[in-house]
Amino acid sequence: MNRNDLRRVDLNLLIVFETLMHERSVTRAAEKLFLGQPAISASLSRLRGLFDDPLFVRTGRSMEPTPRAQEIFSLLSPALDYISTAVSRASEFDPTTSTAVFRIGLSDDVEFGLLPPLIKRLRAEAPGVVLVVRRTNYLLMPGMLSSGEISVGVCYTEDLPANAKRKVVRRSLPKLLRADSVPGPLSLDDYCARPHALVSFAGDLSGFIDEELAKLDRKRRVVLAVPQFNALGPLLSGTDIVASVPDYTAAALTAAGGLRTEPLPFESKTFELHMAWRGAQDNDPAERWLRSRIQMFVGDPDSL
């Protein structure tokens, strides 16, 4: 096919194809693109004719791509990224008048401890923009970036999509939270003897604190796991339970009163917060503005 032949290709069909590759479902693709299922089915029929291939074969409840579909996707996805970048570079962004909708992913600790100052800045600079916050973590982030559910996210990350970009925005030390009235800081023996609470998205009863304690041949006793940081204040109040949380989360929790914070009674490594974003929107003026504000008000330049 030469470039003149491209005139008969509807770009919207390629967007439908990419979404089907991510979702493997006509229903979910329709929801993602805000279209009806008949429209997606009709587009799939046209795509099959365009590429002379079934593209997807139903397997149970899922639609599995054919080898030809996998080959097309490997070529098409980067091409759509380049097209998106080319179009975005031609546009201007004025935060004072923009009504753009930004979809970002934040882990619970970031949402609780670091989102408020970011919101204040965005409201001051861009009163017309809309911010949609989705809960994410290192397991969910790759899929949410790939599918376009979010354009940028902040949390600890591991593997990311091949075209995603990432940078460290903050390095943090954990702090000890307590609500009791016993004077003085806890010793390591006291720390290990106390009952502990932790925040766990998946309901785990251990984390990197336990890995650090294991290096000292010590253990702690976790008696409570909750999914969100904002629950810790009331739950620790009136008990001898302690919690080890990121320093920025500790600051937000102690600001509400009833809790105090202190350093851990042992040396601990820092942990990183990453900002990751879709490569297709790396040069988008609006997204660049948003990422700069995240860097300023979620990041900590002194820790970098």
Helix and strand arrangement:
Elements: H1 11-23, H2 26-33, H3 37-51, E1 56-59, E2 62-65, H4 67-89, E3 101-106, H5 108-113, H6 115-125, E4 130-135, H7 141-147, E5 152-155, E6 165-172, E7 174-178, H8 188-193, E8 195-199, H9 208-215, E9 221-226, H10 232-236, E10 242-246, H11 247-255, E11 260-263, E12 271-277, H12 285-297
Parallel strand pairs: 3-4, 3-5, 8-9, 8-10
Antiparallel strand pairs: 1-2, 5-12, 6-12, 7-10, 7-11
Helix pairs in contact: 1-2, 1-3, 1-4, 2-3, 6-12
Protein name: LysR family transcriptional regulator
Organism: Pseudomonas marincola
Pfam families: HTH_1, LysR_substrate
Can you walk through the features of this model?
This protein has 304 residues and is of the alpha/beta class. The chain has three domains: 3-89, Arc Repressor Mutant, subunit A; 101-163 and 275-303, 3-Layer(aba) Sandwich (D-Maltodextrin-Binding Protein, domain 2); 174-269, D-Maltodextrin-Binding Protein, domain 2, CATH 3.40.190. The protein has helices at residues 11-23, 26-33, 37-51, 67-89, 108-113, 115-125, 141-147, 188-193, 208-215, 232-236, 247-255, 285-297, and strands at 56-59, 62-65, 101-106, 130-135, 152-155, 165-172, 174-178, 195-199, 221-226, 242-246, 260-263, 271-277. The strands form three sheets. The protein has a five-stranded mixed sheet with strand order 4-3-5-12-6, with helices on both faces. Strand 8, helix 9 and strand 9 (221-226) form a beta-alpha-beta unit.
